[in-house]
Amino acid sequence: MSETPVIELIEGQQKGGCPVVHFDVNQQLPIHSYHEELDQLRGQAPIVWNTYGGGFWMLLNDETVRAAFHDHEVFSSDSTVVTVPEPNWHWIPTMENPPRHKLYRRVLNPPFSPRAVRDREDRIRQHATDFIDTFVADGRVNFVEAFAKEYPTKVFLEILGLPHEDSPQMVEWVEAVFGGLGSEDPVAAKAGGDAQVAINAYFVELLADRKANPREDEFFTDLTRSSIGDDPISDEDFLNICNVLILAGLDTVKSQLGYIMLHLAENPDDRQRILDEPDLIPVAVDEMVRVYSIVMDGRKVAQDTEFHGCPMKAGEMVMLTVPSATRDETKYANPGKVDFDRTDSTGHLAFAAGPHKCLGNHLARREMIIAIEEWLRRIPHYQAVEVDALRETGPQLGLEELWLEWEVTA
Ligand code: HEM
Predict the structure, then answer these.
(1) 296 has which bridge partners?
(2) Distance separating alpha carbons of residues 375 and 131, to the nearest angstrom
(3) What does the pLDDT read at residue 3?
(4) Which regions of the chain are under pLDDT 70?
């Protein structure tokens, strides 16, 4: 963590009686800085106004973030990027509000249901082992590059029926979009915009192809044939859904796995515990997802409101600061500690709550569980190297790289 605090209350400044900070949510910081800085900030106030970008509220504890996830009449999804209140894109289902939002989830839920994920488990496991086999004899790997980026992408593109050769291009586009979202750096912002255009063009071509050459039992063909309420899905809706799926399905698992593998590298007792009790891995993964949660999404205030003492105006943006809420001391005892035996962690907000609860949460959980199982089967003991040099970035938290080393036995 950095020596000087990155987020500080600006003395003498208030907005409607609530504290004010300046915090660049796109910056690169030493590993774990975001979580630790947010812990400090939450200790001072549950809600602050951040002057970064055009300014936005930050909800920091479980109670406020949970309430906002459930109240679309005040906290609308018209924009979900806090630094872009008037987006020139429309992600579906992300930016739909109830009741229409439900029509889209009805179409999208089945391929990502617990059962659908269970049916794919063998394939997912195969992909995990194939990737690990490529570097297990080397004794050293950049985990983010060689595994965390590649494995969820391969799994996800297979579910969608897209060719794996497109994977490097997809990963590059998705990274550019996240790097540019709301960034004040014009180069990053332009690269992000260009990547969104490129993703859209990719799916325009795919849509034309699936209409001309429908395939049986294939995700995108099924989507072209689906209905939203009483109407056949429009081309525009189809494209807006595809854009979201690619953005939500690839980078998130990559980012989350980085934190999990780093934790298990640095905490050999926790690693030994799940080596001894592999049935504990699902619980362990969920606990690590809670402590190192990564998504900092936004909502747009739809009507003037007084929320927990802060006067919010229609049109203002609000960050639902999940990486802070999942470590709220009023909800969890010793919240920053990974504890596989805790009984108070069910219902955490790392995958959100309410109507927009993560569509891919069953898939993501299964991918991470399998990754840990297969990694530890082959590489039970390993260390992270050059941890002091590790960096993370926002607004969706993720490690830039993670070098791991282990002893190779003949
Ligand atoms: C560890 C991995 C993941 C985490 C931590 C995560 C977290 C989240 C969170 C917090 C939201 C709520 C966003 C909001 O309401 O503004 C969300 C929504 C969403 N996630 Fe995930 N996600 C992960 C993986 C995935 C995967 C693998 C998919 C692939 C299908 C996916 C698809 C989606 C979609 C489509 C939404 C929008 C849902 C809606 O608006 O109804 N996510 N995710």
Answers:
(1) 321
(2) 10
(3) 57
(4) 1-4
Alpha carbons 371 and 390: distance in angstroms, whole number: 22
How many angstroms separate the CA atoms of 332 and 11, rounded?
30
Which of ligand 1's atoms lies nearest the C-alpha of 354? 15
What global pTM score does this model have? 0.96
CA–CA distance, 20 with 408 (Å, rounded to integer):
52
CA dist., res. 210 & res. 220, Å (int): 7
- Which position has the token pair 């593998």? 261
What local confidence, expressed as pLDDT, does residue 400 receive?
A: 84
* Ligand 1 neighbourhood includes 219 CB (under 6 angstroms): no
Regarding the beta carbon of 80 and ligand 1, being less than 6 Å apart is answered: yes
| Tens digits of residue pLDDT in 316-357 | 999 999 999 999 999 999 999 999 999 887 899 999 999 999
Pocket lining: 356 vs ligand 1, CB cutoff 6 Å: yes
Residues near 18 by Cβ (< 8 Å), separated by ≥ 6? 45, 47, 48, 49, 309, 310
Domains of the chain with bracketed CATH: 9-405 (1.10.630.10)
Q: How many whole angstroms separate alpha carbon 263 and alpha carbon 286?
A: 13
**Which residue's CA is the closest to the ligand 1 atom numbered 37?**
94
* Cα 350 to ligand 1 centroid, rounded to whole Å: 9
Rounded Cα–Cα distance for residues 308 and 402 (Å):
40
* Rounded Cα gap, residues 181 and 152, in angstroms: 22
Q: How far is the CA of 363 from the centre of ligand 1 (A)?
A: 10
Which residue out of 80, 358, 363, 372 has the highest number of ligand 1 atoms within 8 Å of its CB and is therefore the one to mutate?
358
